[in-house]
Amino acid sequence: DPQKEKESSLKDYFVPLTTLKAVHFIVIIGIIVFFNSLFNSFVFDDNAQIVNNPVVHSLAYIPVFFAGGSFFDPANNQIIGMFYRPIVSIVYSLIFAVSGTQPFLFHLFQLLLHSVNAILVFILFRKFFNPLLSLFLAIIFLIHPINQEAVAYISNLQESLFFFFGMLALFLSINKAQSVWRIVFISIFFLLGLLSKETVILFLPILFL
């Protein structure tokens, strides 16, 4: 019966719930929920940090990002700002080198990064809970309104970046068979997280635990 074969094929896609299938679900749901944000324009601080920031417009200025903030002061021809987040500026510069002042690629990168973070959440919870519960919790993280600006607002890229690097450091720390290289890479990811946003410091007690 073709109908029964079709139903069986559809059921096989959902059961059993493998990690690869969970990744598919997370990516698809993320695209559906945040699809409209891909076509947003630059707004508010996006203009100051990207569109009107000549330092971001050239990869040759990447070393300069480590010397100050993420805004450009044309009066004094220098970067200013109270926040020190050079990794964010580097990512902006890399994307700008490809897309210029078109915001689509910025939004796409942010959506994909947030989806990757949700996948990391699933993999982490999978170590403690069953796959279905882990996927449910990861999807809550993915679509929860509190994370909306971290996906739709380009100037909030630091939120997704620090979480990404913090999660990578956490995964490396979970393995009990520690080595010198493992500690080195944990330190590197943690440093990259610090250079993205200082909030990554919250991962430090979790790493020790």
Give your account of this protein's structure.
This protein has 209 residues and is an all-alpha fold. It is built from ten helices and two strands, in the order αααββααααααα. The protein has helices at residues 2-14, 19-34, 45-51, 86-99, 104-126, 131-143, 148-152, 157-174, 180-194, 203-208, and strands spanning 71-73, 78-80. It has a two-stranded antiparallel sheet with strand order 1-2. The longest helix is centred in the middle third of the chain and has 23 residues, at 104-126. The N and C termini lie far apart (55 Å).
Mind sketching the topology for me?
Blueprint: H1 2-14, H2 19-34, H3 45-51, E1 71-73, E2 78-80, H4 86-99, H5 104-126, H6 131-143, H7 148-152, H8 157-174, H9 180-194, H10 203-208
Helix pairs in contact: 2-5, 2-6, 4-5, 5-6, 5-8, 8-9
Structure characteristics:
209 residues; mainly alpha; 10 helices; 62% helix; globular
How would you describe the shape?
globular
Secondary-structure element sequence?
HHHEEHHHHHHH
How many β-strands, per DSSP?
Answer: 2
Largest sheet properties:
2 strands, antiparallel
Helix content: 55-70%
The strand order across the widest sheet is 1-2
* Rg from alpha-carbon coordinates: 20 Å
The parts where pLDDT drops under 50 for at least 5 residues are none
Mean pLDDT: 87
The end-to-end span amounts to: 55 Å
Q: What is the count of DSSP helices, taking H or I runs of 4+ residues?
A: 10
Query: How much beta, percentage-wise?
Result: under 5%
Q: What structural class results from the helix and strand content?
A: mainly alpha
